[in-house]
Every structure is written in C-alpha cells, then in structure tokens.
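Hallway conversation turned thread

IA: we were arguing at lunch whether anyone had actually written out Kazal-like domain-containing protein end to end. Turns out nobody had. So, for the record, here is the sequence (126 residues) and right after it the structure tokens. Reply here if something looks off.
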Amino acid sequence: MSTFSPSLLLSLILLNLLLVSSTTEMIKEGEIRLPSEKINGQFCNATAKPVSCPVKCFRADPVCGEDSVTYWCGCADALCHGVRVSKPGACDVGNGVGLSVPGQALLLIHIVWLVALAFSILLGLF
C-alpha cells in the first residue's frame, strides 16, 4: 500500500486553492455572463459616458434604462445616452412614462385608421 508524502499533499491543497480563487474573480469587461448577473449592483460594467458613441449593433440586445426607455443595442447604447440600466430586456409597456393608457389606446386607433385608409387608397376604394 502506498502512502502520500506530506509535500505532495500540500502541493495538491495549494493547487486546489489556487484554482478556486482564480474562478471567483470579478467578471472583467467583455467577458460573457448571464443577463441576470450584476456587477457592483449594476447590470452593465461601465462607469462614465464615452467621448464619442458610435453604437452599431447587428443583433438586438435590449436593456431598460432608468428613464424607462428601451435601448435596443444594449449597455453601450444606454451608456452613450448617459443612462444607467435598471434591468435586462425591454421596458414594460404602459409603465407611466410618456402617454397614459387612454392616450396609447387613442394612438393605436389612429394608427389602425391610417393603415386602413392607406390600403383602401391602394385598392382604389376612395
């Protein structure tokens, strides 16, 4: 039966501690993480507004800003507007910002009326 030497056992323990401590580091900018993970209480890892904001996105990554506006290009888009992100995903409709619910209903009826009018003109009914 073989026995472990104390130096081998100590080196295995140190290696284990090194691996565990390296995996618990703070997430750095640019690394992939879950949308629900927060860094320092924020969803986006950014501190100051950049000088120029050439935000280009090819895939929608909506985030909801603290001003209840949906920024479709993600954290970079919200940061360029000087807004902190309150939650990942699009903002809720009818959250009290902008038009009230009756105002939104009237706007929807107006849009439907304009679409119906456009189709009737294209089909030659008017």
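OS: looked through it. Helices lie at 6-23, 75-80, 101-122.
IA: good, adding that to the notes. The first strand starts at residue 63 and ends at 65.
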